[in-house]
Amino acid sequence: EEAAPGRRGERERSEEGSAERGPGAAFHMFVLMEDLLDKLKLLSYEEEALRRHNMRPLSRHYFALPTNPGEQFFMFCMLAAWLITKAGRPFEQPQEYDDPNAVISNVLSELRSF
């Protein structure tokens, strides 16, 4: 049975994309999170960033699984601000109830200036 002219190309591209990614693609985010955690530990994030905010260390898959988006967003912003400060730029630590759009805008603006 012949597929409709426009539909066949879409199906082929979809199959090619999944073949290129392979069966392990679904787990790539977990590998990236473990690498991120290793790098944060090398920078002593537990002592320098987490203790200041009285927060628990990240799990191996903290950002890979959406568990509590508000908490995860604040942790991301707090770590981004800490890393910017660690890189030698003064950057005010965001507060938990700050406007998310303003916080992200400030982080991106600071990163662009690097």
Automatic annotation (TrEMBL):
It is found in: Cell projection, Cilium. InterPro entries: Intra-flagellar_transport_57 (IPR019530). One of its GO terms (biological process) is non-motile cilium assembly. The keyword Transferase does not apply. Belongs to the IFT57 family. It comes from the Eukaryota. Residues 1-22 are annotated as: Disordered. Its main location: other. Residues 1-19 have a biased composition (Basic and acidic residues). This is Intraflagellar transport protein 57 homolog. The keyword Cell division does not apply. Keywords: Cell projection, Cilium.
